[in-house]
Amino acid sequence: MTTEKLAEGPPMRAIFNVLIERFYDIFMSVYIYNEHRGYLYLDTLVTALEQKYPEETGFIAAVRKHGNDEHVHYKMFRRWFENRGRMPFVVTETSGYCDQIVKVFFRKTLTEIDPQVVLADDEMFFKLCRLIMITEMRALKQVDILLASRLIKSKPALYKMFQVVRRDEPSHCYPYRDWLAKHGQNLPSRSESLADFYTHYSLIFFKIPLLYLNFRLKRTQHFLA
Ligand SMILES: [Fe+2]
Ligand SMILES: [Fe+2]
């Protein structure tokens, strides 16, 4: 058998399949981590809004719907892992978009920017609204890229899930945009957009590849609640 034939044979294909399946697992581990961070934070934001602005029922309902959508995305991604019979890889704050953009905006961690503290300061809350808007605009762009990519098109289950995300995503910006407009505030600034650019591309070109290449990276023992 020639070397060429060996390279095309089943062992090479098996290795390729393992590597590509690892890519899907890593990539979806980052996604599910972000969905989880997102819906938990939005749940606490709803509670804080109900206390501070009980009369703002429309805004609260919109933020609640946003949180519920992110929770649905989380459950969908979780089911995808369950159906594969695998757990997500351990992803930490270092590789989470939400955590990293919060760090750049507030110089604090997501856990440190408690919604009650944020709501006590109007400027801080406006900043949070702009941050959520930027995050959602980024998510929308990202989903469009994924839906057009062969990597996702070739996996019907993934494609279907990202279609659901694509359907929900545009509405996630509106409540925060409307709140800013209602209070005479500007939309995200150029430097804030730059922060998003930096956060996103450092994840794509640096942090996610590092996760992929870390063959000691463990899988989670349990799904996050
Ligand atoms: Fe989502
Ligand atoms: Fe979203």
Question: Which labels suit this protein?
Answer:
binds fe (ii) ion; elongated; 75% helix
How big is the Rg? Answer: 20 Å
Work out the strand percent: under 5%
Total DSSP helices: 10
The string of secondary-structure elements, in order, is: HHHHHHHHHH
Mean pLDDT: 93
For the biggest sheet, the summary is: none
* Helix content estimate: over 70%
Would you tell me the structural class of the helices and strands?
A: mainly alpha
Description:
The longest helix is centred in the N-terminal third of the chain and has 43 residues, at 10-52. By secondary structure, this protein is an all-alpha fold. It has ten helices and no strands. It has helices at residues 3-8, 10-52, 57-84, 97-106, 115-119, 122-148, 150-153, 156-168, 174-182, 190-213. The N and C termini lie far apart (53 Å). The structure holds fe (ii) ion (2 copies). Residues 70, 136, 139, 169, 172 line the site of one fe (ii) ion.
Quick description:
With 225 residues, this protein is mostly helical.
Chain-wise SSE layout:
Layout: H1 3-8, H2 10-52, H3 57-84, H4 97-106, H5 115-119, H6 122-148, H7 150-153, H8 156-168, H9 174-182, H10 190-213
The protein binds fe (ii) ion (2 copies).
